[in-house]
Design a protein that fits this description.
This protein is α+β, with helices and mostly antiparallel strands and 247 residues long. Helix content is 28%, strand content 29%. The protein has one domain (9-240): 2-Layer Sandwich (Ribosomal Protein S5, domain 2), CATH 3.30.230. The strands form two sheets. The protein has a six-stranded mixed sheet.
């Protein structure tokens, strides 16, 4: 199939990041991946859940939501009081796990909680991977704010983290599937990696056909290359401290 914007099979969609998007969050960004747009916000509170008290360590937790008008047909707003769908729970846990992998929770300034909110305001495939990649930048900036408040002396981040999707469409492995591609993919996979190229999470499903080890290796290689480009993009944003950046 012909890809949007004439992309090659190993090309990411255009990426645009607008940092400090929200006034009141400690860190935030609007992460745009093609037509997918995710608003990521991170804030630190000086408390932890009861099970974490007495540990002397912090915690990182994430929430994810598809806003009602983010998809082709309006979806009902989910309630955090027990009305969340299974998909939402799964994605929230995935985002939280990914972020906790790259932070030293013993160096967050005590028993504090990093709350990361990822709200999809427009969805065109890859919302969970865009949320993870953008959430890292929001978390980074929140920790910079926390340091500026005098709560910590150094950022407790130990690495970068980014994610992308990959799949097989019409027998061809493709990177970063949009909705049109994802909806007909024979194989669908989401991959999360750290800045050293190590896998954090791999979610792969033969939607329409099983796949062998050779095909799995091909998709992992394709996703790894894409994620490393995203990590280098994150590095550049942080190093240059720019408000808006494009890849």
């Amino acid at each position: 199939m012909n890809r949007s914007e004439g992309r090659s099979h190993d090309a990411l969609r255009p990426v645009r990041v607008t940092r400090r998007y929200l006034r009141h969050a400690h860190g935030s960004c609007l992460f745009e991946l093609g037509d997918t747009k995710v608003l990521c916000a991170a804030s630190v509170t000086e408390s932890v859940a009861q099970w974490r008290r007495g540990s002397g360590k912090g915690w990182v937790t994430a929430e994810y939501a598809l806003l009602p008008a983010s998809t082709h047909t309006r979806s009902r707003r989910e309630s955090s009081g027990g009305g969340l769908k299974g998909r939402t729970h799964e994605i929230q846990r995935m985002i939280g796990r990914s972020l906790r992998t790259v932070i030293d929770m013993g160096a967050m300034g005590g028993e504090v909680t990093m709350n990361v909110d990822c709200d999809v305001i427009q969805a065109d495939g890859g919302t969970r991977t865009a949320a993870i990649t953008g959430a890292y930048l929001a978390m980074h900036d929140a920790l910079v704010t926390w340091r500026d408040f005098g709560k910590i002396t150094e950022l407790p981040l130990i690495d970068f983290v980014a994610a992308t999707s990959v799949g097989m469409v019409d027998g061809v492995c493709m990177l970063d599937l949009d909705y049109a591609e994802d909806s007909v993919a024979e194989i669908d996979m989401n991959v999360v990696m750290d800045g050293r190229g190590r896998f954090i999470e791999v979610q792969g499903t033969g939607e329409r056909t099983p796949f062998d080890r050779a095909r799995l290796d091909e998709m992992l290689d394709l996703s790894s290359a894409g994620i490393m480009r995203l990590v280098e993009f994150q590095r550049r944003i942080v190093a240059e401290d720019v408000d808006v950046a494009e890849l």
